[in-house]
Write a structure and sequence with these properties.
This protein has one domain. Helices cover 70% and strands 3% of the residues. The protein is built from 17 helices and 4 strands. It has a two-stranded antiparallel sheet. A two-stranded antiparallel ribbon has the order 3-4. Helix 6 packs across helix 9, helix 10 packs antiparallel against helix 11 and helix 12 crosses helix 14. It is globular, with a radius of gyration of 22 Å. The protein starts with 21 loop residues before the first helix and ends in an 8-residue tail after the last helix. It comes from Pseudoclavibacter albus. This is Acyltransferase.
Length: 448
């Protein structure tokens, strides 16, 4: 090593890639426990005969609580920041949008395929073991619902190259146009055109994603705390007006699929609130203990999100085998047993997250080089569609779920191989350096 060479980084913070904002990593990492908690509490199994249902449905107190704890907009905001930064770096290295889509698709679809396969196998085993088919079907529907995030997030991520180009030309124009589309779609739905509602899955979440990009280009600094505070206050005021005068539900979960103007308002509120908190969060992230938190949650974030539903299936099966009672969801006895349910879920998730995967990391088998953009897009769409098949139908009947899993597995294999028009290249030193930095940061971009 020459005397002029730079010393090797010794601390976690020194190994972070340039431009990384740890406040965004912190926000995304801390959101995960809320998502798992919400899904765990929504899983209600009870009745005679036993059936699964949403235990939190029609709870007015919890409906207002979703204004604070429904944090999916923050995921899309954080993902928009990370994915835009990743795309700009790839473009600087001479890589194209086909390479970008391939990398994003693999990060999402490969771990999703493994988790779905595990739940599918467990469902098949329980079916063969004689578990009540209708109970298993209703449980399977509940377990599949969190998968909505995967195809929608994938679609938004694939749009990053286009959205970045449009945003660079007219930052305000992109956001205003997408917000306008959301308002028009909502109005059309209320006028009797419900088939237009799915358009807002893209319009609303693209707004959130693009707001994430503003966190890295100085927009929030130029706005300043006063205007950001006004945006937050105005967003919540607008949501109250939509609820009181517009007939919208006050439950953010009711407004989620497809998203409505209420979710758009919540997105603006969370974005501006987060921007106000960023200076304090950046100071907080100077502490080694906080770096360790995002390193642990970051490296295990995707696994935690995808496998907590598998853990719930295992717990329900164990409860049946042991002959433990299933209190009626939502009553006092049910709430009094939630601490045991959550504690058991946490223990099982810790075990799952501690299982080493370094020796079986299929992503390392991906061929290095350039995949044709058209093939990357088609493979990405096929994989997202496979997830959607499972999402819409649940895990039973097994034949239908197998079709979705087969589509997903085929897409992953296609992406790993690089396709028919693949161009092989040698890995660059810069790519290796960035990979090291991403690992040091906890690979929090595995979600996006």
């Amino acid at each position: 090593m020459s005397a002029a060479a730079s010393p090797a980084p010794t601390s976690l913070s020194e190994r972070m890639p340039a431009g990384r904002d740890l406040s965004v990593d912190l926000a995304r990492a801390l959101c995960l426990p809320f998502v798992v908690l919400l899904h765990a509490l929504q899983m209600g199994v009870g009745g005679d005969p036993l059936r699964a249902s949403n235990a939190l449905a029609d709870n007015e107190v919890l409906a207002w609580g979703t204004w604070a704890f429904m944090i999916m907009p923050t995921f899309f905001i954080a993902g928009g920041f990370a994915n835009t930064l990743s795309w700009r770096r790839m473009r600087e290295r001479g890589e194209g949008w086909g390479d970008y889509i391939r990398s994003r698709a693999l990060r999402l679809l490969l771990p999703t395929a493994l988790a779905i396969a595990a739940i599918f196998a467990c469902t098949a085993a329980l079916t063969a073991g004689g578990m009540d088919a209708e109970l298993l079907r209703t449980v399977g529907v509940r377990l599949a619902e969190p998968l909505w995030f995967i195809p929608i997030y994938a679609a938004c991520s694939f749009c990053i190259p286009l959205m970045t180009r449009l945003y660079d030309r007219s930052p305000a124009g992109v956001l205003v146009t997408l917000a306008g589309v959301t308002a028009v779609v909502d109005a059309a739905v209320r006028l009797g055109l419900p088939w237009l509602a799915p358009l807002n899955w893209l319009a609303v979440w693209l707004v959130a994603q693009q707001l994430g990009a503003t966190l890295g280009d100085g927009t929030t600094q130029r706005l300043g705390p006063v205007r950001l505070g006004l945006v937050a206050a105005g967003s919540y005021a607008g949501m109250l007006a939509l609820w009181h005068f517009g007939g919208y539900s006050n439950d953010m979960l009711d407004n989620l699929n497809p998203p409505t103007l209420m979710i758009l308002g919540l997105t603006l509120a969370q974005w501006s609130t987060f921007a106000l908190a960023q200076p304090a969060l950046r100071k907080l992230m100077q502490r080694p203990s906080m770096l360790a938190v995002i390193a642990v949650l970051g490296m295990r974030g995707m696994r935690l999100y995808l496998w907590h539903t598998f853990a719930m299936l295992v717990l329900i099966a164990a409860q049946l085998v042991l002959g433990l009672p299933f209190p009626e969801p939502g009553n006092g006895e049910w709430w009094s047993t939630r601490w045991l349910w959550l504690a058991s879920l946490i223990v099982l998730l810790v075990v799952i997250c501690c299982i080493p995967t370094r020796g079986v990391d299929l992503s390392k088998t991906a061929r290095r080089g350039h995949m044709h953009p058209a093939e990357a897009v088609i493979a990405g769409i096929m994989g997202a569609a496979g997830v959607a098949v499972v999402l819409l139908g649940g895990y039973l009947p097994l034949g239908r779920a197998a079709i979705g899993l087969g589509m997903l597995a085929g897409a992953v294999a296609w992406l790993l191989s690089g396709g028919l028009a693949f161009t092989a290249v040698r890995p660059s030193a810069h790519a290796a350096e960035e990979a090291t930095g991403a690992h040091a940061a906890g690979v929090t971009t595995r979600r996006g």
